[in-house]
């Protein structure tokens, strides 16, 4: 039972439960029950079960490498001034935190590669994220929204746990992006959770869920200072972008 020379099949052996002709990526097999099945890159993927099914695992010690894809995604971070958007990007990209507050003028653009594994679909996706940190001033948003929101694939909506007004203002921020780029995946990041025990908190999960639900958005508490859930928020957004249909 050895691997044969690579050749493309006109009718590949289908994956279990998938009709013949619809299986994706098969390259060759030896035509006998138990024969080695390879994909279009001549990599081992399993053995032929003899009844039109693909059997996994196959050879002892063999592993099935998920197919790797690349995707580019522009992500806009929106929210009021001083909610921690720039600090979240810095924590995510550099794993650093700067305690000194510096106002973002216009928009700051950063890049970060994020690898997402999707075992159920046998996929491995490398997402090249371009992170647009948008200045948190309403006048700026209204003046230049077309230039900064065009081509956006996802929104990280950031508010400050210590200021309820920043949560309420996210409704208009997200809507502004939708007006330019259409409805997009959204994740809410309720930042500065590290201050929960130091200041009086004027809103809680019920209020967060009410606002996030309006956009079908999951939400989580984050802290750019400690790093809590920062990468998780970007990963959650990346996964939502992968599942979202292209406009």
Q: Could you name the CATH homologous superfamily of the largest domain?
A: P-loop containing nucleotide triphosphate hydrolases
Which structural class is indicated by helix and strand composition?
Answer: alpha/beta
**Rg computed from alpha carbons, rounded to a whole number of angstroms:** 23 Å
Strand residues, percent: 25-35%
CATH architecture of the largest domain: 3-Layer(aba) Sandwich
| Major sheet | 6 strands, mixed
- Poorly predicted runs of 5 or more residues: 1-26, 58-62
Distance between the amino and carboxyl termini: 47 Å
**Total domain units:** 2
CATH topology of the largest domain: Rossmann fold
Helix content: 25-40%
The counted number of beta strands is 10
Oligomer: single chain
Strand arrangement within the widest β-sheet reads 6-7-5-8-9-10
Element-by-element helix/strand order? EEEEEHEEHEHEHEH
Mean pLDDT: 80
| CATH class designation of the largest domain | Alpha Beta
Q: Give me the number of helical elements.
A: 5
Question: What would you note in describing this structure?
Answer:
- By secondary structure, the chain is α/β, with parallel strands linked by helices.
- The chain has 2 domains: 64 residues, no CATH class; 176 residues, P-loop containing nucleotide triphosphate hydrolases (Rossmann fold).
- The strands form 2 sheets. Strands 6-7-5-8-9-10 form a 6-stranded mixed sheet, sandwiched between helices.
- The N terminus is likely disordered.
């Amino acid at each position: 039972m050895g691997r044969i020379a690579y050749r493309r099949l006109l009718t590949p052996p289908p994956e279990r439960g998938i009709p013949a002709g619809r299986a994706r990526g098969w390259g060759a097999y030896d035509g006998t029950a138990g024969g080695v099945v390879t994909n279009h890159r001549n990599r081992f993927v399993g053995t032929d079960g003899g009844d039109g099914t693909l059997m996994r695992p196959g050879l002892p010690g063999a592993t099935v490498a998920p197919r790797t894809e690349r995707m580019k995604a522009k992500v806009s971070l929106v929210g009021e001034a001083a909610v921690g958007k720039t600090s979240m990007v810095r924590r995510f990209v550099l794993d650093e935190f700067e305690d000194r507050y510096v106002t973002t003028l216009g928009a700051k653009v950063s890049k970060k590669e994020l690898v997402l594994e999707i075992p159920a679909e046998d996929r491995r996706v490398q997402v090249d994220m371009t992170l647009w940190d948008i200045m948190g001033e309403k006048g700026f948003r209204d003046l230049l929204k077309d230039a900064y929101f065009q081509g956006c694939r996802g929104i990280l909506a950031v508010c400050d746990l210590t200021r309820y007004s920043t949560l309420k203002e996210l409704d208009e921020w997200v809507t502004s992006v939708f007006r330019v780029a259409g409805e997009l995946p959204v994740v809410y990041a309720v930042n500065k959770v590290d201050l929960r025990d130091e200041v009086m908190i004027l809103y809680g999960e019920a209020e967060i869920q009410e606002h996030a639900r309006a956009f079908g958005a999951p939400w989580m508490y984050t802290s750019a200072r400690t790093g809590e859930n920062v990468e998780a928020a970007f990963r959650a957004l990346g996964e939502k972008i992968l599942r979202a249909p292209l406009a």
